[in-house]
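pasting input
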Amino acid sequence: MRIPSSTSSSRRAQGWLLARRGALLAALLATSFGLLVHVLPKVPDSFLCSYRFKHARLTALPPGKLIICGGSNVAFGMDTTQLERATGREGVNLGIVAGLGLSFMLADVGPHIEAGDLVILAPEYDQFSTGLWGGTTPLGSLLLDVPEAWHSVPVASYRILPAAYLRAVQIRLATVCNAGFKVDLREVEPIYQTSSFNAKGDVVAHLDFAPSRITLPDSLAALPQGPCARTVRLIRDFADWCEARGATLVIVPPTIVESAYRKHQAFIDQVWADLEAQLGSRVRGKPTDYAFPRPYFFDTVYHLNGDGVRRRMALLLAALADLCPEPTPTLPEVH
Amino acid sequence: MLFNSLNFLLFFPTVAVLFFVLPHRWRWVLLLLASYLFYACWRPAYLGLILLITGSCYVAAAVIARSASAGARRIALLASLGICLGTLFLFKYLGFAAETVHSLGNVLGLGLPVPTWQLILPVGISFYTFQALSYTLDVYRGTRAHEPHPGIFALYVSFFPQLVAGPIERSTQLMPQFGEEMQFDYERVVSGLRWMLWGMFKKVVVADNLARFVKTAYGPPLATSGTSLALGTFFFALQIYCDFSGYSDIALGAARVLGFRLTRNFTTPYFARSFTEFWRRWHISLTTWFRDYVYIPLGGNRHGRWLTYRNCAIVFLISGLWHGAAWTFVVWGALHGTFLIGEAILRHHVRQHEGHPLVQALRQSPVVAGVRRAIVFVAVMVGWVFFRSGSLGDAMLALKRIGQGLLSIPQQLAHSGPGGFVATVFMGHSRAYMAVALVAVASLVVGDCLLVSARFRRLFHAAPHVVRLSLYFGLAMSILLLGVVEDENPFIYFQF
């Protein structure tokens, strides 16, 4: 095609020509990318795919249910059955991974909150940093394998979504390449897969494993200079939402290995003080109480083993005593 | 705002469309506001620094231009130098100076207090400070007239395509262009977009992927093997080239889309056959800045060989320091100064035998040219070890390990076989990663070779539109599928 010469009307024609060709290139890229996503093998039994059965349970439970929200600190750190017995409610543990972003987690559970529900939220300290507030690659991976989760993505997460989704596609492509271009990509990882959860949504496959060497350093993801006001505001808005719907929200600290807590104590305590100031009696427990020694942990600074879960549950049940219909049996302290 | 970000993908087309829609007399306002917005996205408070540098240089140049008194002109120049270099010193070198004094004090047993202050280095300060200073110096020397329009001068200092990592433009080259009425031209805009696409490919596909391996190889406590370190150094040589030249290409392309011509900062430097040629091909705008404002005022090569060597040494020590406030950078600069001086001495002796047939034959031999390229490349890589290492001790340890590792390659091959050897060298990185690294390096070599070929350029421009579209599609798809998308790899030269 001959490029029009340079007069003002022809410059306009040149501009439109560039726009058309740019649009053609963009369309080709979008189509190719879409086709690639469509043909990429999915991982139906991944850890993230537990989202499906957790949501199925959430929608099946009647009003007055118990909902546990958070990242992998609640996936690897709760005994939902024990909480059900203590509170007299049927429950579901929605925890998967903090990388989904707090804004996604709260937007995802929000529409399912009904009058009489009890919601326990344990946000991880990393989620007070701008990086994990909106979500990162795990959100992209979730959307790749569980397309129905797109409905829950809040507007606030749109900004990070292109990079997160693109990164998830790249990782999947690399996985396919490393697996020798096999189509069946079932998880062979012993713990991080859907079958490691029980029916209530707790990870149980690892409970009897001996405490492993914690592979992550005793530090959290990059934290901002000071507490992230946006995260506190998000939780406050969520608290208002729960109250408007007649549900009770309780915010508890995540369990974290003692050395990591000490390393970031100033930040963590400030964050918790902010939450207490803004949310009052909804906030229960102190971060220091939930900072456990290493032997209680499985493989990261947040993931508890069997002993750790038992210790955490003792603290939690004491904190929720007023919400339990019967006196809570006192559990022996586990060292 | 990073070039490889969603923000820039929205920012640049908006600015470009508005630029061509607006009447010419308002375009400088748009570009100035856009440039300040571009910089403020990183840290709004540091906009004040650009305004300080801009204001001080503008006022100084105005005084220099209007004053008849030599004393007043000198004072104005010194004030401008003081403010610009003082600001640079405060943010970039004060901590380093304090640590050096503290270390010296420890050696002398003085027990000086440990320096604790930490100022965040403003992105691009070394670049826009030098750019603004070059204007003041040119006005002082009389090589250009003072620009009466403060907005145009402010735009010259802060023009967003080259604001944070160059090229360092001269006022005589860039400023007059702001007065030209740029028209939309399809071929020029496509050429600019093509530069941006290639620059983005070099940055996110080549540089950022190689950075993963380099980070592992040079990670503390340098526990990697010599062969892995050697590969890491090779990858770093490509990483820093692609990172910096990629940025420069995006800057050139963005400016070209708008109609402005910036200086090419890199012309395949690793093909250089001598260190002199290397520095004519690498970071050209900085090299010429040092040549015009440091080397020539010191006397250049006009006062005999030994003073020439001295001037060369001073320039490269300062250049090393410009790159970073650490002794590793000073040593890097000193190494390059040593290479150049050594080369000059050798050239001097060779010239004395210029007519000898052997010398003539060696000059024309392609094998010798290849050997020379290899020697320059290896020497430059030795310099990169210091550039990349966290300390002089780490650098020396790395060099020692690399030497031992390379010498032990036959043993390693015999012990583990080729497959095992490759896996060891790649330190457990996956097959997918190795494939990406190989593709990235191959693409870079092929791409750079083709770009310097006039024949390829003719063929490309004559090719049907669908062929060119396929190439753009291939590059863009590579960026999407192989490009690193996290923020963990900001442009290396942002730290300068």
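fyi The mean pLDDT of chain A is 85.
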